[in-house]
Amino acid sequence: MKNSINLVSKRRRPGKFHRRLFIVSVIFFSIAFLISAGLIGYRLILGGQLEVLKSDETKLIAAVNLDPEKKVKFLTVKERLSEIQKILNERKNLNNRINTVSAVLPQDLGISLIESDEQQIKLRVTAPDLVSLNNLIEEKIESYAVEQNRAVKRIEMTSFGLNPNTLLYEATFSIEFI
Amino acid sequence: MERQVKLYLKKYKQDILPIFLIFAGIILFFRIIIPQVGDLAGMISQIQTQVETNSGLTDSQRNLSSINDAQLDDDYILVLKALPSVKSIGSIFEALTIAAGKSNVSIGSLNLQVGSVYEQEETPAGKSVGGVPFLNLLVRVNANSAAQSTRFAQVLYETVPILEINSISATSSDGKYDVNFFFKPISEKSFQAQTIVTPLLPVHLELLTTLRSWAE
């Protein structure tokens, strides 16, 4: 009587490739798992911190607004000062131009009219003789006009004559600015 | 059937387990790691902002408590005199009278363009400089010389409420001035609870000193 007995196990023995694949997969999964767990933990810690900070903010806001009138006053002062500073920086100062023009006039000349706006100055001067006016036209005006920072575009003499009432010579100049 | 599955699993366990682990790792990577990294970056930025806000609020608290109440009241009155919150004809007239006195001229006439009773726009176009509205006024003064009239303009520049002169016409007997007096309604924006209170800058302190000298 013969019985056939299969002595080879039906179970497959893991080969070298399978062992390596298993180790790699375990390492890969472990790394992914550890990173995930770490990130979740870190997120929970940050969430806690954020909650604490928000709660601090609420307390601080309450503390800052304990005296709301004082805060409003201070903020108003600051805001107004910024606005005032802006206006002072931007506003045109016509007097500066008038003063620089007046400064170049010879002492014996009088000013009977000054008209000034942003673009121009109209100036009427009076003189007892022609020497002073000549000095003004020949020298002073030119030296005034050539200075770059004054931004003079054109200087025109619009009228000239002798006033029969005052017996003074009168000349009117129009100074245009760039 | 169940027995067959068990046998199949047992047979291919060495193939299935690594594949399952790799698959699980990939899922962890795409479903947890990548989204968490994005969320964490957002949270860190949120915490940084919150820390800055809290730090600003702490500074605000410290700054507010260091302010002298009496000094603050004086500064408040001064800045509202320099830049009123409403069209203040009374303070304008007072400023003109003081300037006239300082420059030895007398006020001849005043023509006010007070404005319409109601306008939909808060600052109608053409009636503001840098967003600050103004009240236009034509002033005529009696003077003894053109120089005296320009002196009046110079005094006006150094007075409160702050103003801008659009044009000057000065003769030996009188002066005419087209003047904008500035005013600005108080902004609601400044009064939020979260607004940080920072101390006045040196430029502000310097300006306060200047305004105080102009207001004298």
Look at the structure and give the mean pLDDT of chain B.
86
**Into which percent range does the helicity of residues of chain A fall?**
55-70%
Share of helical residues of chain B: 40-55%
**How far is it from the N-terminal to the C-terminal residue of chain A, by CA?**
129 Å
Question: Helix segment count of chain B?
Answer: 6
From the alpha-carbon coordinates, what is the Rg of chain B to the nearest angstrom? 35 Å
Report on the biggest sheet of chain A: 4 strands, antiparallel
Total strands of chain A: 4
Shape of chain A: elongated
Classify the oligomer: heterodimer
The assigned structural class of chain A equals alpha+beta
Average per-residue pLDDT of chain A, rounded, comes to 85
Estimate the global geometry of chain B from the Cα principal axes.
rod-shaped
Main structural class of chain B: alpha+beta
Give the strand content of chain A.
15-25%
Q: Helices and strands of chain A, in N-to-C order?
A: HHHEEHEE
